[in-house]
Design brief:
By secondary structure, this protein is of the alpha+beta class. It has two domains: about 200 residues, Orthogonal Bundle (Triger factor/SurA peptide-binding fold); about 110 residues, Roll (Chitinase A, domain 3), CATH 3.10.50. It is built from eleven helices and nine strands. The strands form three sheets. It has a four-stranded antiparallel beta sheet with strand order 5-4-7-6, with helices on both faces. A three-stranded antiparallel beta sheet has the order 2-1-9. The protein is elongated, with a radius of gyration of 29 Å.
Length: about 350
């Protein structure tokens, strides 16, 4: 599970009053939101500060756990705090692992005597306050979740800043990838950066029923001829696309007929043959693709086979390698911190 720690995200992570303490010290993972009609939801938890884990004597509560569950599944806020029943166990397990990890990292930061500069704290506190619509909203949160104590709130912010600082020292900075390292990866894996010849195209298709009668086939050919005539009159991507939405019978009609980029070896031979003789922006004649189906295509782009240069891909390579190294370092840190720790799930 990938988490990126960031204090700005922490400061923006206070949700509704009921979730006010559920501040995250890292960005939410991206999880697709299931549609409400098809999703069975577990009831939203009632948070009472119940202990759920003990890490070297420090108690973590249901508030910490649910905060992390909502970070993993941020769409819970759209469903009154519920998470999908089918995912609840995995989400809870992942959240438990993460809050224990955060606490271990925090304790290690304390052991190393890391500190947060006063100016950094001031900026974090100011940023935190700015996310509230009005002073009363801030006071309500302070009263409900921090017993009216700014010291407790400051301690929470400082904790997150120390976790961030510790991870910067042990994970983020050491996982930086140099240009030389990226170049070595490029040279060793040159096949990954080969470009297949491809065509970007739109289609308008006429597709009669599978067991069409002679009259239906005659009508289909007539409709196909009319489709070509209308398509030839279009001058732009949008004009062709709007026509596709109106008269096309293939599945791409809902996307303005746009197939985006298709490798040449994935194109029907009849379509490929037509495309090879076309210029970008040109509309084809009628193409018989077999089984009594017809199509007309608009060529939007043609990419020749070749090799991406290092300059084109160096940034993506560095990001890819940094992510890999970061995950390895994070996993190693977690393993090292747990080795001599006393962790109890309650």
């Amino acid at each position: 599970m990938k988490h990126h720690f960031s204090i700005p995200v922490l400061l923006l992570a206070v949700m509704s009053p009921a979730w006010a303490q559920l501040m995250s010290s890292h960005a939410p993972t991206t999880t697709a939101a299931p549609s409400a009609p098809t999703m069975a939801l577990a009831p939203a938890p009632t948070l009472v500060g119940k202990p759920v884990a003990r890490v070297n004597g420090t108690v973590l509560t249901d508030r910490d756990l649910v905060r992390e569950m909502y970070t993993i599944f941020p769409y819970a806020r759209q469903h009154n705090g519920g998470v999908p029943k089918a995912m609840e166990s995995d989400i809870r397990a992942g959240a438990m692992k993460m809050i224990v990890f955060e606490e271990l990292v925090y304790q290690e930061a304390q052991r190393r005597k890391l500190t947060v500069p006063p100016e950094r704290m001031k900026k974090a506190e100011a940023a935190f306050r700015k996310q509230f619509a009005n002073p009363q909203e801030y006071q309500d949160l302070l009263k409900t979740e921090f017993k009216g104590s700014t010291k407790l709130l400051d301690a929470k912010i400082e904790r997150s800043l120390l976790i961030e600082q510790m991870l910067k020292l042990t994970v983020d900075d050491p996982s930086t990838i140099t240009i030389a390292q990226a170049r070595a990866f490029y040279d060793k894996n040159s096949e990954k950066f080969r470009i297949q010849e491809s065509y970007s195209l739109q289609t308008i298709s006429v597709m009669p029923p599978e067991h069409a009668s002679a009259d239906q086939l005659k009508e289909a050919r007539k409709k196909a001829a009319d489709a070509v005539r209308q398509a030839k009159q279009t001058k732009t991507y949008d004009e062709f696309g709007l026509l596709a939405e109106k008269i096309s019978e293939d599945d791409y009609r809902v996307m303005m007929g746009d197939h985006q980029s298709v490798d040449r070896d994935k194109l029907p031979p009849q379509v490929l043959q037509a495309l090879q003789g076309m210029q970008v922006g040109q509309v084809s004649d009628l193409i018989d693709v077999g089984n009594n189906a017809f199509t007309v295509v608009r060529l939007n782009a043609h990419t020749a086979a070749g090799q991406k240069s290092f300059a084109e891909v160096k940034d993506s390579i560095r990001a890819y390698l940094k992510k890999q190294k970061s995950e390895e370092l994070r996993s190693a840190l977690d393993k090292r911190l747990r080795k001599n720790a006393k962790v109890e799930e309650l």
